[in-house]
Amino acid sequence: MKLKGINPFEQYVDKALFGIVGASLLGVLAWQFVGPGNQISVGGQTVDPDKAYGPVATQAQAVLAKVGSASPELPAPPRADVLKRFEDRLTKGVSPSKNIVALSPKLSLGAGGVADMGAGAESPIAPLAVPAPTGVVAATFASAIDPMEVISNDDLAKLLPKEQPFDKQAVSVEAVFDGTALTKALELDPEGDPRSIPLGWWRGQMGVVAVEMERERQMSSGEWGEATIVPPMPGRVSMLKDLDKAVKSKGDMPMLVAQASAAQDLVMRPTYYNIIAGPEWTPPSEMSTGETKTEKMDRIQRQINDWVKEEATLKRRLEQQGKQATDRQSGREESRDEGHGGGGGRPGPGPGRSPTPPPDERRNRPGQQPAVKKNPLETRLEEVQGKIVKAQGELDKMNQPEQAANEDAARRLPLLDDPKVRVWTHDITAEPGATYRYRLRVVTNNPLYGQKLIDAQKADADSPVSRGDWSEWTDPVTVEAKEYYFITGASPADQLGGARASAEMYKFYYGFWRKGSASIEPGDVLAAQAKLPEELRLWDMEKLKAGAKPKITQATPDERDGGGHGEEGGRRRRGEVNEREQPTANTETPKLEDDGLSKPAARTIDFMVNAMMLDTSALPASGERGSKARFRTFFRDQAGQIVVRYPDVDAASDLYRRLAANAKMGENQGRPRVKAVNPQDLPQPTGNRPGADEPASRRPRDDGNDGAGGGGG
Questions:
Q1: Are 501 and 518 in contact (CB under 8 A)?
Q2: Domain assignment of residue 37, yes or no
Q3: Which tens digit of pLDDT belongs to each residue from 222-249?
Q4: Do residues 473 and 487 share a domain?
Q5: Of 523, 447, 478, which Cα lies nearest the Cα of 655?
Q6: Closest Cα to residue 519, out of 537, 498, 533, 550?
Q7: What DSSP character marks residue 218?
Q8: Helix/strand/coil (H/E/C) assignment for every residue in 154-213
Q9: Are residues 487 and 460 in the same domain?
Q10: Which residues contact 564 (CB under 8 A, 6 or more apart)?
């Protein structure tokens, strides 16, 4: 039977829906048996529920290991650039508005906190032009350096001999720097642009950082070689050495200036190394006299001794004159009181007559002022005493150089107010026998460093220092060679023998030049031997390196005033004091005792110059009346060249006289210095009668006027 009004969809939709639901239920039922089990997420991983605690346990063990670690890895702390934040806030405006009315030109704060009105970074600033030193002078210096300096300074040891004595020849260069000229350079305000350096950038913040030296070596052709900067002295203050590490920003500049000001003496006038033998170092401007400090001290002491003796003699003579005047005056008074008559013949003065007054009393009438005439002996005594005081003050100053230096530093003006700042430095790399010329320049801190300048001047703010202009070149100075020889006499072949010559050879050893003499003939090589003082000793370097120190004992009275002991090669070491340096006369002088740290030095040294004598000949006579015969001697040197030497020229040379004088002084190395004279030790007058020690011509004459009248004839 056909259904009416029911379409096929309606007829079968319920059946289809039932089938779909049934199939879904069967699928779900089947998935429970054939599909995967339940899973969960732990620590970013998907695991079964029964394995959920595995990742948790692993993370817990890792945390436990970090907690128990002796050196755990800590997170880096956050970096905060405080300086950049401060500078950003300092340069940025304080108003939140982008547009603000300008009330005045930009206000720039200097490093010193002083406000300077100006255009700031909108206008150029004149860079600092440090003036050049003037009056530059150079001088050579040779001595034996203290072994303790070598032990404590490895860089210095590389420049010295490997064995003792540590003789060294150096060049010192001195100049004068005008600090007031530096002030004018800082205050310089050119017309228009650029403008002057703001006051707050440099006032109270300027210092000398270094004194640089440049040298040129003279070549065999006579021309000067390439200029090179001389390295600073090893072991001395060098603020330029680690400048990049010390100054990294503008904020480090005040510390640099403070260090330069505190060490201005060490920077501008570096001290030479401690010397164990040889003359004391003196500035080049004071070396022109040709007299060493030791020689000058001995000369002054001898003058003082002579004046002390003269002072004692003058005092004795004045005392004797006073006694004689007193005796004459008492005799005249007794004669007036007695007035007794004379014997037979011509009568003497009676009771009513007084003796004829002496001439000086007749000249001084009543009512007249007696003429006051100073005794010449008293005048001379005052002159001598003044000379003693002046010379003793000079000697005391030389005996106490550190105290004198402190006094000079106390009186020294500030850098920018001193027109005559002495600066010097030393070249210890100079080679013996070479000729150099030098010049200096002063290096200061740069007040423009780190400042905000216009783009065209950015380079002026990059360097923390300003290098000044170079000084003029010094006169050529020749470093003394290690050995010299001089022909002091020569004779050509004659009836007495063949050609011959006499020579003196000099070699620098242990702080002094040593002399050896030789007589040579054609074919002989220059060779000689010099005898050394017996007091010379060498230090045991191994014991000193191990920390051993010399033993200090008290000297006996006979050993005081010694100029040095054998243990130190004739020079006092640090810590030993001379009697003239004592605060009181009773202070005993300590000395170095030989406690196994030293050993005797060689007793002789040998000389040999690779030059062979060829011949001697006479020079043609000059024809002048009274002229002496002149000779010349021929040698062949190691290069095969013929060398001609003139004995009269060698003997008259300044170098020969200087080396001979130094060698003579070296003969007394280690011996006592000139002692001060004690007036109480001077010989006293002999006899009981005043004036017994004076010549008869200086004794007062006894004219017999003080006695009574004579007897009758």
A1: no
A2: no
A3: 999 999 999 999 989 888 887 878 888 8
A4: no
A5: 478
A6: 498
A7: B
A8: HHHHCCCCCCCCCEEEEEEEEEEECHHHHHHHHHCCCCCCCECCCHHHCCCCCCEEEEEE
A9: no
A10: 535, 570, 571, 572, 669, 670
- Same-domain pairing of 266 and 414: yes
What domain count does the chain have?
2
**Across 218-334, where does the E strand assignment appear?**
228-229, 275-277
Whole-number CA gyration radius for the chain: 48
Which residue matches tokens 């005794």? Answer: 375
My answer on whether 527 and 497 are in the same domain is yes
Closest alpha carbon to 22 in 32, 34, 10, 14: 14
Q: Do both 445 and 526 map to the same domain?
A: no
pTM comes to 0.60
Per DSSP (E only), the strands in 435-565 are 435-445, 465-467, 477-478, 483-491, 500-509, 512-520, 525-531, 537-539, 551-554
Sheet holding 483-491, edge to edge: 483-491, 500-509, 512-520
Residue 435 belongs to what domain range?
124-292+410-478
Q: Among 478, 513, 530, which residue terminates a domain?
A: 478
Quick one: pLDDT band at residue 368, thresholds 50, 70, 90? low
Query: 3-state DSSP helix/strand/coil percent for the chain, to nearest 5?
Result: 35, 20, 45
Task: Please indicate, yes or no, whether residues 453 and 591 belong to a single structural domain of this protein.
Answer: no
Q: How far apart are CA 22 and CA 34, in angstroms?
A: 18
| Residue 682 banded pLDDT, cuts 50, 70, 90 | low
**Which of 615, 642, 640 shows the shortest CA–CA distance to 524?**
615
The answer to whether residue 54 sits within a structural domain is no
Q: Using an 8 Å Cβ cutoff, are 169 and 432 in contact? A: yes
Specify whether 505 is located in the same domain as 543: yes
Q: Specify the 3-state DSSP secondary structure of 504.
A: strand
